[in-house]
Amino acid sequence: MAYEFSQDIAGKVVLITGGARGIGREIARVFAEHEARICICDLNEADLQEACKELEALGAECIYAATNVVDDKQVQELVDKVVDKWGRVDILVNNAGITRDNLLVRMKEEDWDAVLAVNLKGVFLVTRAVAKVMMKQRSGKIINIASVVGVMGNVGQANYSASKGGVIAFTKTVAKELASRGINVNAIAPGFIKTKMTEVLSEEVKARLMSNIPLKRLGEPRDVANTCLFLASSLSDYITGQTILVDGGMV
Ligand SMILES: NC(=O)c1ccc[n+]([C@@H]2O[C@H](COP(=O)([O-])OP(=O)(O)OC[C@H]3O[C@@H](n4cnc5c(N)ncnc54)[C@H](O)[C@@H]3O)[C@@H](O)[C@H]2O)c1
Questions:
Q1: How far apart are alpha carbons 33 and 28 in whole angstroms?
Q2: Whose CA is nearest to atom 20 of ligand 1?
Q3: Are 250 and 212 in contact (CB under 8 A)?
Q4: CA 170/CA 153 separation, integer angstroms
Q5: Going from the N-terminus, what domains does the chain have, and what CATH number goes with each?
Q6: Are the beta carbons of 24 and 40 closer than 8 angstroms?
Q7: What is the separation, in whole angstroms, between the first and last Cα of the chain?
Q8: What is the pLDDT of residues 106-118, one digit of tens each?
Q9: What's the pLDDT tens digit per position in 69-104?
Q10: Going by CA atoms, what residue is nearest to atom 38 of ligand 1?
């Protein structure tokens, strides 16, 4: 029988961090279109409420939680909320992330700490809490949103590139630890994707970036979401510990 994403993903319980906007929200849309049961977490309750309404209109069951991924107590409450509601977590997408760019010599310690906290410690805390649930189930898919910057480095992003390189290394280790329990752990490293994070770039910077992208366009959030769907599906069952670059051929 031909493979159908809908049959594979329908009813699966998906937890997406930073799901109220940008790439995380698009990932939530793709899963909603495939009739998953979705929990999004983010910082702002009003944004979450609005996003959840949209996902429900697409036909998904959706709940949300205002959770700061840096706070272990809030993270545990988030995972408990999902398990209380649906009894399991099939797919975790660690997407929440921030930037605080500056050249190394001008970078403030607090900007280093903030980026490492959300982008790396946040991934650790949510993964640790969800892994305990998935280990009992003996199944699960964990997808970490890293960045090409974690592979190639980028001027002005010492904190961000260190955090994303850390996410890629974390992915490899956790994949090895959880493999025997039927849990796949992979990362996606997007290139430059059209979201609020990249909106702030000047036309000149965008033009310069474009000259390094063989496919000659910035990525769409949907490009990342589609890769996420693949890594969440049974099509990728024999893939773990990997990082897929979604960057138009840039790296
Ligand atoms: N946009 C790009 O070009 C690009 C490229 C590579 C990687 N990424 C990565 O993709 C992910 C999503 O980025 P985006 O472009 O959609 O950014 P975005 O800023 O539009 O969305 C990020 C979301 O994460 C949430 N968030 C931030 N801190 C949080 C916290 N402590 N707890 C919970 N939620 C928090 C924000 O409120 C926001 O809704 C990030 O991890 C980012 O590093 C983005």
A1: 9
A2: 22
A3: yes
A4: 17
A5: 5-190+221-246 (3.40.50.720)
A6: yes
A7: 37
A8: 999 999 999 999 9
A9: 999 999 999 999 999 999 999 999 999 999 999 999
A10: 18
Q: Residues 24, 196: contact at Cβ < 8 Å?
A: no
pLDDT > 80? residue 134: yes
Nearest to 60 by CA among 8, 17, 13: 13
Token pair in block for residue 134: 């998935």
Four-residue CA torsion sign, 95, 197, 248, 117? negative
Gap from CA of 167 to ligand 1 centroid (Å): 14
Residue 198, pLDDT > 90, answer no
**What is the value of pTM for the model shown?**
0.98
C-alpha–C-alpha distance, residues 14 and 39, integer Å: 6
Per-residue pLDDT band for 60 (boundaries 50, 70, 90) equals very high
Ligand 1 atom with minimal separation from the 94 CA:
41
Q: What is the pLDDT of residue 204?
A: 87
Residue 57, Cβ density class (10 Å: 0-12 exposed, 13-18 middle, ≥19 buried): exposed
Long-range own/partner contacts, residues 213-217 (CB < 8 A, 24 or more apart): 213/247, 213/248, 213/249, 213/250, 214/248, 214/249, 214/250, 215/248, 215/249, 216/248, 217/248
Write out the two tokens for 130: 């969800």
Instruction: Say if residue 232's pLDDT is above 80.
Output: yes
The token pair that represents 217 in the structure block: 């366009």
Q: Is 238 a catalytic residue?
A: no
Alpha-carbon distance 160 to 166, whole Å? 10
- Phi-psi map region of 233: left, alpha, beta (phi>0 left; psi -120 to 50 alpha): beta
Ligand 1: atom nearest CA of 96 is: 24
Q: What is the number of other CB atoms lying within 10 angstroms of the CB of residue 124?
A: 17
